[in-house]
User: Which sequence fits this backbone?
C-alpha cells in the first residue's frame, strides 16, 4: 500500500442511529417508481414506460429502511465488492484509488496507484481482482499487503480495449467485459480491437484468455454478474440498451443468449433470490429472476454506477453513485462470496 502521496480524504458520514441522530447525515426516502428503461449521461438515454403501480412495489427492502448516504466528496465512485467479512471495497477511478467502507462504519484508504481500477471482485482465495484500464489490464491485489500482480493485459497479441467489470465463476474462471471508453489519462489513442467489444474468459489458474464466444456479439458490454450455481451469466450491453442472460458451458463458453430485459444499465449484482439489480441514471432498477420489473430504488445523483451486497450479515445493498457511496438494508442477502 502506497502511503507516500498526500490527499484530501472525502467526507465520511456516520451510520444512522435510532437512539441518537447524528448531525450531517442524509436519509433519503425510497421512491419505487415504474420504469422499463434507464438512461444515462454518458450512455444513450433511455425512454420511460408506464407500468401498473403494483409492479413497483416488490423490491425486497427491509421494513422501514431508508437510503443512507455514507460518504461523499469523491470524483466518481465505481466497482463495489465485499470481502468475506462484509467490508466493501470501491473505486474512485479518476483519483486512482480504492477505498474501504468497513463493517463498523469507517472509511479507509486501501491504496492509491491502482492502475485506474474500475470494476472489482473477490476471488475464492480472498484476493481482490480489479479491471485496471490505465494499461488495459486485469490485476490481483493481496489485501493484506496491497501489492498486486498483473493477470492478463491483452488477447491474441493485442491490448484490450479497456477491462470494465468482472465476475468469477465458482470454478475460478474469470469473465470480464471489454468495452472501449476513451480515457483522458491514456498516453495515446486506443483503436478499437478488430474483434470489437467483447466478453472474455480467463481460464482458472491461467494467464491466457479467450473470447467467451465468437458467435455472440455485443455493441458495448459493461456490467456483468453470474448466478451462484455458475450456470447463468448476465451481461449489460449498454450500447444496445439490453440485458442478456446466457447459459454457460462446462468449458466456460456462452451456449446461448436470451434477452432478459430492455434497460440501459451500468454495473449489476444479484441477491439470494436471484433478483437482478441494475445501476443507471435513475438509481437501482430491480427485476426478479423471470425478468419482471419489481421497482426502482431512486438515487438522486447524476449517474448510479454499480451495486453490491455487503455488511456483517450480507443484507446491506451498497450503491456507488457519482461522487458518493450509499447503502440501504434489504430483506435478501448477497448471492455470491465475491460481490
Assistant:
Amino acid at each position: 500500500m502506497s502511503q507516500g502521496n498526500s490527499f484530501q480524504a472525502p467526507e465520511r458520514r456516520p451510520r444512522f442511529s435510532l437512539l441518537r441522530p447524528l448531525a450531517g447525515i442524509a436519509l433519503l426516502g425510497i421512491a419505487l417508481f415504474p420504469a422499463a428503461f434507464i438512461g444515462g449521461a454518458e450512455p444513450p438515454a433511455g425512454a420511460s414506460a408506464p407500468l401498473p403501480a403494483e409492479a413497483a412495489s416488490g423490491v425486497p427492502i427491509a421494513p422501514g429502511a431508508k437510503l443512507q448516504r455514507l460518504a461523499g466528496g469523491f470524483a466518481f465512485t465505481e466497482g463495489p465488492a465485499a470481502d468475506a467479512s462484509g467490508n466493501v471495497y470501491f473505486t474512485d477511478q479518476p483519483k486512482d484509488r480504492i477505498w474501504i467502507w468497513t463493517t463498523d462504519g469507517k472509511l479507509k484508504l486501501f491504496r492509491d496507484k491502482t492502475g485506474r481500477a474500475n470494476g472489482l471482485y473477490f476471488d475464492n482465495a480472498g484476493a481482490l481482482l480489479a479491471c485496471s484500464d490505465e494499461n488495459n489490464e486485469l490485476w490481483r491485489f493481496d489485501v493484506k499487503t496491497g501489492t498486486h500482480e498483473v493477470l492478463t493485459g491483452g488477447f491474441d497479441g493485442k491490448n484490450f480495449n479497456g477491462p470494465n467489470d468482472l465476475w468469477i465463476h465458482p470454478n475460478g474462471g474469470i469473465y470480464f467485459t471489454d468495452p472501449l471508453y476513451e480515457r483522458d489519462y491514456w498516453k495515446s489513442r486506443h483503436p478499437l480491437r478488430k474483434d470489437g467489444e467483447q466478453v472474455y474468459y480467463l481460464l482458472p489458474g491461467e494467464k491466457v484468455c479467450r473470447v467467451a464466444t465468437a458467435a455472440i456479439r455485443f455493441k458495448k458490454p459493461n456490467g456483468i454478474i453470474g448466478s451462484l450455481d455458475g450456470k447463468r451469466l448476465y451481461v449489460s450491453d449498454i450500447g444496445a440498451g439490453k440485458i442478456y442472460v446466457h447459459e454457460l458451458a462446462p468449458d466456460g463458453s456462452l451456449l446461448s443468449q436470451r434477452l432478459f430485459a430492455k434497460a440501459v444499465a451500468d454495473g449489476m449484482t444479484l441477491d439470494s433470490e436471484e433478483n437482478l439489480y441494475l445501476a443507471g441514471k435513475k438509481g437501482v432498477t430491480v427485476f426478479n429472476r423471470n425478468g419482471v420489473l419489481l421497482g426502482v430504488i431512486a438515487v438522486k445523483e447524476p449517474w448510479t454506477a454499480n451495486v453490491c451486497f455487503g455488511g456483517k450479515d450480507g443484507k446491506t445493498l451498497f450503491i456507488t453513485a457519482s461522487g458518493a457511496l450509499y447503502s440501504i438494508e434489504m430483506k435478501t442477502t448477497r448471492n455470491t462470496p465475491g460481490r
